[in-house]
# Entry
Amino acid sequence: MGRRLIGGWAALVYVFLYAPILVVVVYAFNGGRQVLNWEGFSTKWFGEALSDPTITEPLKNSLVIGVSNALIACVLGTALALSMPRMHRWVRVPVDGLVYMTLVTPEIVFGISALIFFVQAGVGLGLKTILIAHVVFNASVVALIVRARFVGMGESLEEASYDLGAGPLSTFRQVTLPRLAPAILAGGLLAFTFSFDDFITSFFVSGAGTTTLPLRIFSSLRFGISPVVNATAVMILALTLAAVVIAYLVLRRTGSERRGGALPGV
Amino acid sequence: MRRRAEERVGAGGPRYPAWLSLPAIAWYVAFFVCPLAIMAVFSFSRREGFSDIVYDFNLENYKDLLDPLYGEVFTRTLGLAAVGTIATLVIGFPLAYYLARYAKHKTLLLLLVVVPFWTSILIRTYAWLIIFDPDFPVIGALDLLYTTKAVYIGVVYTYLPLMVLPLYAALERMDWSLVEAAEDLGDSPLRAFRRITLPLATPGIVAGSLLVFIPMMGEYLNPVLLGGDKTIYAGNLIGQQFLLSRDWPFGSAIAMVLILSMTVIVLVYARMTSREEALSG
Amino acid sequence: MIDPGWERQLTRRGVLAAGAATAFLAACGGSSDTSSEDKDDSADKTKAAAELGGTLHYYNWADYVNPETYKAFTAETGVKIKKDFFVSNEELQAKLQGGARGFDLACPTGYMVQILADAGLLEEIDWKQLPTVEKNLDTRFRKLPYDPQDKWSVPKDWGTTGFMYRSDLVKEKPTTWREFVDLAKGPYSGKVTVLDGIPECVGSMLVMLGHSFNSEDEGEIDEAKKELIDLKPHLLAITSTEYKQMLIAGKAVMSLGWNGDGAAVAAKKPAEYVVAEEGGEFWVDAYVIPTGAKNPTAAHAWIDYVYDPEHNSLETEYTYYGSPVKRDLLEPVMDKKVFANDDVFPPVDTLEKMEPNSVSPEGTKLRDRAWTEFKAA
# Structure
């Protein structure tokens, strides 16, 4: 009974999550110039978007930043998550505070302060500054997600590994990483998402001509809703879906390894 | 009390050297602490001419903020964040619960929650622009475009996935046989939920609430696009000082107040929940 | 079909001296000889032409260039164009002041040219690279008060800030700011937009109240602010970019906006653009080259390119904003309807009651705070 009710609710939430996206997809195939005025099925807006370098170039920028950001954030965030539980109180509390601060600080505040900082430091605005700024937030995202998994993991296996003479690095690789991998991957995916999605921080720390896709879309939104934006949105969605399928396969593989391994209940 | 906290931390996962944290800390200090420090200095400076900044320590900007008008903006922002957080929790919890306890293809379904979040935040907001358009079937007739209601809907929609993920992460670690056992032993589902599920879900609820509350406090885009830039929230007020009014010192002061008030709220919240956790655990 | 008012303005300088806007226009006087010293090096020109290439990074208002012009310019010069957009002069200023470098060309409004130049954010214009401009620029657009030596800028377009309405949906035919505001608060509540611009909105309200567009009186600005705050609950949106579409779609029926947008709406739907009887803003947008430009040669080439009367006509036909090119050069090449359109080239008696935005730092600061309160309310 309860189960069916909750299942129904979950289905409704999925409708809520996907209906707006579906709307964009459907209208992207509208041949008409007016978004809401259906004039027959057409794929011409996709061709238009793909042949527009002012869309393809920002897309490339966003991908480069998103992936590099996710990689750096995973390394920094995971290392931080591993080191934190055993830190001395006097170190851990401020570091913890710092991690939360990077998450608490509104993007608009951080974006503006980062801009001021880069200008004062004489760093030229560009892809580099967008990446640097994105990593600040995303390292924390990864750290939190990894730590949530890490602290509940139990320590006996690692202790055994240390007792057998393994160093932190090989212990990590052989004992911790396999169990932590899904969390790191989830953190990395989320980090990519945030970066790819980011508008406000990028808006302030982007330089002349280093436009990311959200910035490009925002500037075209100023013209009102348009079929080319619709088509671009659908292509991003397709790209996203491809990435999700990959992530799903990876997670499933680690999942089956886990089931096959000697670590029940993790 | 303190001893107990130490012990709990001691049980916090495998042992790794503290220096592993150095790269991240260096990154934070260089690209987060420094910028904010510079901004803090700005907040005590003064605007002169069309936008020049004069560094003479004064509290004028903060005094100006005492105008009830700005208090109203902050209250409005708090309202948006609070209602938005509760709404995402109410909407998201059953979903996370379903995913963790009953769903067959957990990873797939979870990723389906994330997918909307992967598409540009602008596209998702833009989708609502289409839906709220007066020409859109049924919903268009509700006249929601450029209203506060539209902003609320947009905000909940934008941040819902952020709530579901940590809720799921917490619930997923649960041993459902415990719940079943409790139910079998005659606990009502509600009681079982309160005694077993809720305490275990609390870290997820805390993390999820923080993850959505925080960006909502600094929300900028939804009011601009779905609210027609009419009703402004704290984030818009700050953005305006930098984008339009060119009063960087005043904008910095507003930013400082926003950060401080949010930090206080988060700390109080974290303290309250951790005490609850300690009591129930 | 030549607009008589405009002709009069061209030929009779006595009329020009009358109103504030025309004084602005006339400020250049008739001195076309002052730049003669710059005219003698064709060697430089060929050198510049030889270097032409690469990318032109153009920072502009959205939808302010005929898309055909981009293509034609690239085809002719081989210079690729990269575009970025701003919504307000203040955003442009914030971005440049924030340290964004690498823009080769931008188009702020006159008053902002002055602010940017004072802040050291502009490169000087090299008139040697602008032979077509020298030849075709209407002399009344030389040495305007915001750039008295033509050192920092070259005029791009000019126009007015007034209001527009869908004449099929608004029957009252408003002609004054007061009527605009009253109708907005009355029968058309919720279907009205205003620009997301500080000088435009505050100034228009000041004018409605019988004050100067450029008032620096705290009390007067306060009055204007109260008018805006009273108006706010009745607004559909505060936007400088989307109102054109909203009016065309009928989502909005009245908008405080610019003449070119008014004419653009009128080209698609029954609509009227109105310069309010109380007056309003007269503005000139100008090409400038921001500090740190990587390709100033291409920027000069662009400016010179669009000053060809045929090229410029394409611009006016697209944006519906007045062209600073000599009127007699435009006549043979411009679409007749656009050329005779009063909204595009307002008659001189309309311009007489208007003022350019030219407020001091103090006035700007007062306006900024008023705007913040309006937005926060």
About this structure: Confidence is low (pLDDT under 50) at residues 255-266 of chain A. The two ends of chain A are 29 Å apart (CA to CA). Residues 227-260 of chain A form the longest helix (34 residues).
